[in-house]
Amino acid sequence: MSQSNSPIEISWFGALCDDDYEQLGVPQADLLSSWAHCSEIVRTADSLGFDNILLPSGYDLGIDTLSFASSIAPLVQNMRLLTAVRVGENWVPQLARQLGTLNQVLNGRLVINIISSEMPGETLDGPHRYRRTTETMRALRTLMNGERLEMDGEFISLQVDAPRICKATSPAPAFYFGGLSNEARETAAMDADVYLMWPDTEEQISLIISDMRERAARHNRTIKFGYRVHVVVRETEEEARNAAAYLISAVDEATGDAIRAKSLDSTSIGVQRQAELRAAAHEDGFIEPSLWTGIGKARSGCGAAIVGTPQQVIEKIQRYQALGIEAFIFSGYPHVDEAKRFAELVLPHLHHGPLAL
């Protein structure tokens, strides 16, 4: 592995989906998603020097992402907003206008996390859902580039000019996108700018990156790579491991199963892969040095954390960078406290900046 001299993008996590705790599985009223709490997370990350922040989206949990992003945007001075969009829930011309307006408020610092979602209550199989996502991404990019849309597709049939706001804020923001299935990978290879991955072994990450580069090349494209992972950093390794153990100490197996089952993506290939990592880990929960899978016992989706001293965390990040990762989305519990700790112990030692897109 060779170390790149290019800066990496360091992002934090906005926890809009009722995903903030001192101990996982033990809800606290002051940590539930709300304007007051989530805006504190975002403003804290902005003031600490993070390059970006993911504002996630879930239908049932938490608060609405676009409404929140529009409200917080005037208060964000420096970093980007990686705003999640559930594409199955939106009419494309309206979405383009909303995002174009948000991008203007942010002075061009909007980036978009595309989620291949269904409508609430709708059930589509993977191939149909991803074909709709592909059409939606192409239609959205066209309009946000300020161009007229002429599409007669399987799911979208529109002939419409771009909204004026999109012409004023073009080109379209970058699309971040994730998914492990074959359909998800093809969608990303054809239309995403940044392919996001959940935690995995370094060997598997390398294989995924190679596969995605080959897929993108077949479409005459290149793609960048991002990595979404939790972090538990402390001055000593013993302190870090103790903090990690405390996070999940209140969750028994039945409670953990119930938490994961609530997620709309609980049966996805990505979530299944996180479960495989937990099953393959050592007794202490570590699947490889510094990568701890225990956190996945109490949450769906991203199910592992980098755990260790500042130097161990930095070295792990650098190993990922050497594999080809250029953008990182970190989170820790509680999110305000851990953002401050990460910014003190790790961030000053990383060569970082907004991802060149």
From TrEMBL:
GO terms for biological process: alkanesulfonate catabolic process. Pfam families: Bac_luciferase. Keywords: Flavoprotein, FMN, Monooxygenase, Oxidoreductase. Coiled coil: none annotated. Residues 33-326 form the Luciferase-like domain. InterPro entries: Luciferase-like_dom (IPR011251), Luciferase-like_sf (IPR036661), SsuD_RutA_monooxygenase (IPR050172). GO terms for molecular function: alkanesulfonate monooxygenase activity. This is Unannotated protein. It comes from freshwater metagenome.
